[in-house]
TrEMBL record:
Domain Signal transduction histidine kinase internal region: start-end pairs: 166-243
Name assigned to this protein: Signal transduction histidine kinase internal region domain-containing protein
Transmembrane as UniProt keyword: yes
Entries under InterPro entries matching the protein: Bact_2-comp_sensor_kinase (IPR050640), HATPase_C_sf (IPR036890), Sig_transdc_His_kin_internal (IPR010559)
Keyword Membrane: yes
Keywords: Membrane, Transmembrane, Transmembrane helix
Signal peptide location: none
Gene Ontology molecular function: any one: phosphorelay sensor kinase activity
PANTHER family, A to Z: SENSOR HISTIDINE KINASE YPDA
Length: 357
């Protein structure tokens, strides 16, 4: 089947070439027949020039342009073009002698007016070669552009896949000790048959559901992200009881605001992990304000001057990388620290509509 298509393609290309050279022959007959009344002599002379023109054209489009010009081997292109010009000029001179000897019986006055001048003859030949070469060069440029575009597309697709893999990796870098510690606390509550055990199991179940099934989505409802934060806070409060004081305030103008999943929780987790107990309590204040144009997130926790976001927690580099991947040029992150507080302020431009599949 492929061979048949290939053969048909070659046949069609051959027919097109034949039709083109027939058109060139007609052009030569008209061009060299200006001022002459002998159509037969003009046709014979045109036929004599056809092999020269065909050879010159094919050398140009199948050798000089693709092998030397396109590949930027300019010196060889110039040298071989000069060789071709010299040979073609010699053959044109032979054609003039052919016209003088064979067609005009050595009578210069009987020669076709145009064929007496080598410049006119060469103009006719090189005009055809130049036009065909221009089309060939344009075709090669189009093919090269398509290949470049295809290569760029593949590179972009590869980069996108790498970014997706990096993003998944960054999403999953949630502190593993939280789950371990929560399960230990849950085990202790179960041994005591504490009343908080069912609620703790429910909160942990909601948290795991979010981690396992929502994290792969590009965007989730901001309300879902906040509910996840609230479950996280509740679990931590159950673990540490009276030593934690958390205040969460929110002002959400629309339920259709979306955000990348697991984007805010690292800041909350860092506040619990790296915050310091001052005056008998770890104080954390969280404020989330959002509309269709902006999401403003602020979290502040009690701290001491040597507070640092160590590599053992969800590092700031991780968070910054993810923000660059998800919200390039659409976010602003500031971190301030003083003697008693550590404050993080994040502003991002959200997606205003939920994408339901």
């Amino acid at each position: 089947m492929l061979n048949k298509k290939f053969i048909l393609k070659k046949i069609s290309q051959g027919l097109l070439h034949i039709l083109f050279w027939c058109a060139v022959l007609l052009f030569f007959t008209y061009f060299f027949g200006v001022g002459s009344h002998n159509f037969n002599d003009t046709l014979v002379y045109s036929l004599f020039l056809m092999p020269i023109t065909i050879a010159l054209t094919y050398v140009s489009i199948y050798k000089l342009i693709p092998d030397y010009l396109i590949t930027k081997r300019y010196l060889r292109f110039i040298v071989y073009s000069l060789y071709t010009l010299i040979i073609s000029t010699y053959l044109v001179m032979v054609s003039i002698f052919f016209s003088l000897i064979y067609l005009s019986d050595f009578q210069y006055t009987n020669m076709n007016p145009i064929t007496r001048n080598i410049l006119f003859v060469m103009t006719g030949i090189f005009l055809v070669t130049f036009i065909v070469s221009a089309f060939k060069l344009m075709k090669l440029n189009i093919i090269a552009s398509k290949k470049t575009k295809t290569l760029e597309t593949k590179i972009l697709e590869t980069q996108l896949k790498l970014k997706e893999q990096e993003l998944k990796y960054l999403k999953m870098q949630i502190h593993p000790h939280f789950l371990f510690n929560t399960l230990n606390t849950l085990y202790g509550f179960a041994l005591k048959k504490a009343d908080e055990t069912p609620e703790m199991i429910l909160k942990l179940s909601n948290l795991l559901d979010y981690l396992l099934y929502q994290v792969d989505k590009p965007l989730v409802s901001l309300q879902d992200e906040i509910h996840h934060i609230e479950d996280y806070i509740t679990l931590e409060q159950m673990r540490f009881s009276d030593t934690i004081n958390v205040q969460l305030t929110k002002s959400i103008s629309s339920e259709c605001i979306e955000i990348a999943p697991m984007l805010l929780i690292p800041f909350v987790e860092n506040s619990f992990k790296h915050g310091r107990i001052l005056n008998g309590s770890l104080t954390i204040t969280i404020h989330i304000e959002a509309n269709t144009n902006n999401i403003h997130f602020k979290i502040k926790n009690s701290s001491v001057k040597d507070y640092s976001n160590s590599a053992n927690g969800i590092g700031l580099d991780n968070i910054r990388k993810r923000l660059e991947l998800v919200y390039p040029n659409k976010h602003h992150l500031t971190i301030n620290q003083n003697e008693t507080d550590y404050t993080v302020v994040l502003s991002i431009t959200p997606q205003s509509k939920l994408n339901h599949v």
